[in-house]
Automatic annotation (TrEMBL):
GO terms for biological process: bacterial-type flagellum organization; negative regulation of DNA-templated transcription. Residues 7-24, 31-61 have a biased composition (Polar residues). Belongs to the FlgM family. Residues 49-101 form the Anti-sigma-28 factor FlgM C-terminal domain. This is Negative regulator of flagellin synthesis.
Amino acid sequence: MVIDFNRLSTIGTSPSTNARSGTTAPPGERNPTSSTQNTLSPGPETQENVQLSPEAQQIQQIAEKLQESPEINEDKVAQLKAAIASGSYKVDAQKLADKLISATQDW
């Protein structure tokens, strides 16, 4: 037997449908050709508790912080644009090379 949990909340609120003919009975009237009727009633309310692992809690905290912070640091971008435009922005070739090497070693 397959139970469609998505439709449980709609049982008893929509008209019955004859599965063979596709006809719909008026609300409150049982479809005479239907051999079974769903008589599910809501059970007692239960509370479910979920406990996240410390790792999952940390990931959740990081995700919240990321949503709070802007994606682009507008001030930093403006400073870099001004430095490049004025010619005062200098690239340290040794520092750049070291970072490239360390980045490829992580792969």
